[in-house]
Amino acid sequence: MAREFSTVGVVGLGTMGAGIVEVFARNGIDVVAVEISAPALERGRATLKGSTDRAVAKGKLAEADRDALHERVHFAVGLDALHSVDLVIEAVPEHLDLKQRIFAELDRVCRPETILATNTSSLSVTEISVATSRPNQVIGIHFFNPAPVMKLVEVVRTVVTAPEVVADVEALCARFGKVDVTINDRAGFIANALLFGYLNHAVSMFESHYATREDIDAAMKLGCGLPMGPLALMDLIGLDTAYEILDTMYRRGGRDRRHAPVPLLKQMVTAGLLGRKSGRGFYTYERPGSPVVVPDEATPPATDAALADGARAIAKVGVVGSGTMATGIIEVFAKAGYEVVSVTRGMEKSAKVCEAVKTSLNKGVVRGKLTEADRDAALGRISWSATLDHLADVDLVVEAVVEELSVKKALFASLDEICKPGVVLATTTSSLPVIDVAMATQRPADVVGLHFFNPAPVMPLVEVVRTIRTSPEAAATARAVCAALGKTGVVCGDRSGFIVNALLFPYLNDAVKMLEASYSTADDIDHAMKLGCGYPMGPFELLDVVGLDVSLAIQRELYLELREPGFAPAPLLEHLVTAGYLGRKTRRGFRDHSHR
Ligand SMILES: NC(=O)c1ccc[n+]([C@@H]2O[C@H](COP(=O)([O-])OP(=O)(O)OC[C@H]3O[C@@H](n4cnc5c(N)ncnc54)[C@H](O)[C@@H]3O)[C@@H](O)[C@H]2O)c1
Fold first, then answer.
1. Per-residue pLDDT for 277 more than 60?
2. Fewer beta carbons below 10 Å: N end or C end of the chain?
């Protein structure tokens, strides 16, 4: 029989604690909510009220249920109020000495059978537990932010946690509708161990002016389908908390440089820029605690202003190539009203591309997204050619040929001879340095990267890559074109992986390393990222879709260019590729897809 928890204590009513109180009270459990001082208690009460009021306004909670919820919560200053609860969850700031002091005190105040749990993200639950006389009744219950919304709970057992305590806590999680993954006590557990290297890397991109905060966040939201970008997420987590988590993970997790907090973070914390909770972090918020972002001095002007920034007028576009990307890009431009010249290496290839574009446009008609007239007009705007000479009068060329530097360089040298002055020359490369391609021409200032995502007609993101030779006008033109296509163009520097792949693939690689180390299973890791962080797919699902060979190649490129030891490809990934397990396309990757 699982233990009955009728009263639960929560210590610390900040970002996490207030949400945890809500989770319990919503599920009919009485809560004793404790803070360090009366003003902090009032803040916690206000956070709980704000959250439940929003739930009522959204129609997710009835007014009567909200009132009943509040009646279940008893607020108090000081730990003494916790003398008769069945379980305590501690959610005070991420400092080991503070948590140890609180656990020693809880051990004294609480009944001998009370379970003591910490919501720590990165500290050792074992070290916290030995501050008590009952380490076998100490456990980690790691909720995700916002606690009332996120489905995942990581249950952390130490080497001394009693099995029945683990079982009771698992049953409790199930009772309030959370999915738990139970794991051993390791820095960052599953989700944070995979998340924080990525978040810190995003901060370093921002710190080095590699891309703007808006562009970094838009890239990850639109390119990977994440619920929010990394800098907005840092603001939600709280920069002080994020700093402490990174610092602890760096020290506990093998001194991986990727967890060494980026210096900017410390500066922001010292300056009181803690994220949403203080009203300002990477973004500025309406008021402390508000989720509403307001414009500030770093907010970029609207897209129209980019046009004023020297963007050139583009009417006619050449697209070179006959693969998936070229086909999609032709469709995107033609649908947006541009005149398009498609150039392939032979009329046979042109006929194939033409068929593929027609099929895709027809699908749009069948789905009601396009009228027949629009389809015909789009097709009418495309001319098909097998010679580059037809690009003499276009305003923009988009190259989407095979991903080989020698081929692309030769093509750009030809374009340089054929195209009129002032043309913007763009490459869709996803991994080669754009500057190499640019220097194959006499006009590197006019060369940019336009990294479309697959499938181009669907994916809303384009990475606009600016080399050290790209002129502001060429970059502005590329960005204005993206806007005219109805896409979000994010501008970034010319580094391996641009924004999306540079942030995404090391995370996927880390997941493989975690699996390889037998810390958890592929299923639990996928669960953790989907339910704890709102990712549309878990890392192993995504790797199988992208292809393990493609993923390995990108990871190798990142490692070679950035020389970051933590980016070294996981041996397991290499072995699977060697064995021919490439993912869905070979019906086997991390999972067996032969029966699906
Ligand atoms: N922020 C997140 O996204 C997140 C997610 C999961 C877990 N966590 C973990 O949750 C814990 C709390 O983090 P947070 O972001 O909510 O921090 P926070 O700074 O928002 O809140 C901490 C609260 O603890 C209170 N407090 C401090 N000392 C206290 C004491 N002696 N007694 C009672 N209350 C005290 C503070 O007044 C404050 O309200 C940390 O261990 C953190 O790692 C955070």
1. yes
2. N
Report how far Cα 261 is from the mean position of its chain's Cα atoms: 18
What is the pLDDT, as a whole number, of residue 451?
97
Q: Which residues contact 87 (CB under 8 A, 6 or more apart)?
A: 5, 8, 9, 114, 115, 116, 117, 169, 172
Residues with CB under 6 Å of ligand 1 are 11-17, 34-36, 40, 91-94, 102, 119-121, 142-143, 145, 237-238, 241, 245, 277
Q: How far is the CA of 402 from the centre of ligand 1 (A)?
A: 51
Averaged pLDDT of the chain: 95
Return the residue whose CA atom lies nearest to atom 32 of ligand 1: 36
CA of 120 to the centre of ligand 1 (A): 9
pLDDT at site 45:
96
Residue 179 forms beta bridges with which residues?
A: 152
Q: Is 282 exposed, middle or buried (0-12, 13-18, 19+ CB in 10 A)?
A: buried
Q: Is the dihedral of CA 120, 124, 130, 134 positive or negative?
A: positive
The rounded distance, in Å, linking the Cα atoms of 227 and 222 is 9
pLDDT in tens, 384-439: 999 999 999 999 999 999 989 999 999 999 999 999 999 999 999 988 999 999 99
- Using alpha carbons only, give the angle 399, 402, 469 rounded to the nearest 5 degrees: 45
Q: DSSP state, 4?
A: P
Chain Cα centroid distance, residue 425: 31
- What percentage of the chain has pLDDT greater than the value 90? 94
Is the per-residue pLDDT at 302 higher than 90? Answer: no
Cα(499)–Cα(96) distance, integer angstroms:
35
308, pLDDT greater than 80: no
Which residue has a Cα nearest atom 15 of ligand 1? 15
**Cα distance between residue 469 and residue 473, in whole Å:** 12
Q: Which residue has the tokens 């629009």?
A: 374
Distance 190 CA to ligand 1 centre (A): 20
Contacts of residue 142, Cβ cutoff 8 Å, sequence gap at least 6: 119, 120, 121, 153, 154, 155, 156, 189
Say which residues have a Cβ less than 8 Å from residue 354's Cβ, sequence separation at least 6: 342, 382, 384
Percent of the residues in the chain that have a pLDDT greater than 70, as a whole number: 99
Q: Which residues of 304-319 are buried (b: 16+ CB within 10 A; e: fewer)?
A: eebbeeebbebebbbb
Q: What is the dihedral of CA 287, 47, 140, 121, to 10 degrees?
A: 0
- Closest ligand 1 atom to residue 238 Cα is 1
User: Which residue has a Cα nearest atom 10 of ligand 1?
Assistant: 91
List active site positions: 121, 142, 154, 192
Q: With residue 331 as reference, give the H or E element that holds it.
A: helix 324-335
Question: CA–CA separation, 382 vs 98, rounded Å?
Answer: 67
Residue 94 Cα, ligand 1 centroid: separation in angstroms? 7
CA–CA dist 239, 276 (Å, integer): 9
Across residues 482-508, what is the average pLDDT?
96
| pLDDT for 307 | 55
Cβ–Cβ < 8 Å for 443, 470: no
Query: Model confidence over 564-580: pLDDT tens digits?
Result: 999 999 999 999 999 99
Transcribe 459-519 into DSSP letters.
--EEEEE--TT--HHHHHHHHHHHHHTT-EEEEE-S-TTTTHHHHHHHHHHHHHHHHHTTS
